[in-house]
Specification:
Claudins function as major constituents of the tight junction complexes that regulate the permeability of epithelia. With 188 residues, the protein is α+β, with helices and mostly antiparallel strands. It is built from four helices and five strands; from the N terminus they run αββββααβα. The protein has a single domain, classed as Butyryl-CoA Dehydrogenase, subunit A, domain 3 (Up-down Bundle), CATH 1.20.140.150. Strands 4-3-2-1-5 form a five-stranded antiparallel sheet.
């Protein structure tokens, strides 16, 4: 039972870490949500903004000027939280690999393996919380921005909705948190 829970937690942690990394690197945190006939599909991410021509499939992207340039708060905070979540989740997965019972590292000291699994669980929990805060922060900011424009009857030609990268960040963060609960509460 213990080995099955460990492998399940490891698989979930690995998948969730990949989701977090993909969410951080991809550029569809906001997508245009116009109901009219559009000839292009616009995505905004943490690092760049891309436009895809729907007729011929050509995609062009504009990188944001610099990491240190003045950017909206939602981008800076989300970048910081997501990068922190990525680093913590990667560290937790590496620690968890060494703490698994099926790995021969520290086989003679099962107490150290238990501590490694619990430490990985706590680190995954922190990564999940940071990633969830970053993803939800961005999503709420997109919603508030859209609600402000609608309440003031302002239409800029396109309005944005949450993109798949935002949902991927939320899914990865939730997976990290569930893996954390498995490792810290249910395993021993």
């Amino acid at each position: 039972m213990r080995a099955a829970l460990q492998v399940t937690a490891f698989g979930l942690a690995l998948l969730s870490t990949l989701f977090l990394l993909l969410a951080t690197c991809t550029d569809c945190w906001m997508v245009n949500a116009d109901d009219s006939l559009e000839v292009s599909h616009k995505c905004r991410g943490l690092w760049r903004e891309c436009v895809t021509n729907m007729q011929d499939g050509v995609r062009t992207c504009d990188q944001y000027d610099s990491i240190l340039a003045d950017h909206p708060v939602k981008i800076v905070v989300t970048r910081t939280l997501m990068i922190s979540a990525d680093l913590l989740a990667g560290l937790a997965v590496a620690t968890l690999v060494l703490g698994l019972d099926c790995i021969t590292f520290l086989k003679e000291d099962p107490g150290a393996k238990v501590k490694m699994c619990r430490g990985a669980g706590v680190t995954l929990g922190a990564a999940g919380i940071l990633g969830l805060i970053g993803s939800v922060w961005y999503a709420v900011d997109v919603y508030v921005e859209r609600a402000m424009l609608v309440s003031h009857n302002i239409f800029l030609g396109v309005h944005y909705d949450f993109g798949w990268s935002c949902w991927l960040g939320m899914a990865g963060s939730t997976g990290c948190f569930v893996a954390s609960v498995l490792l810290t509460c249910c395993l021993y």
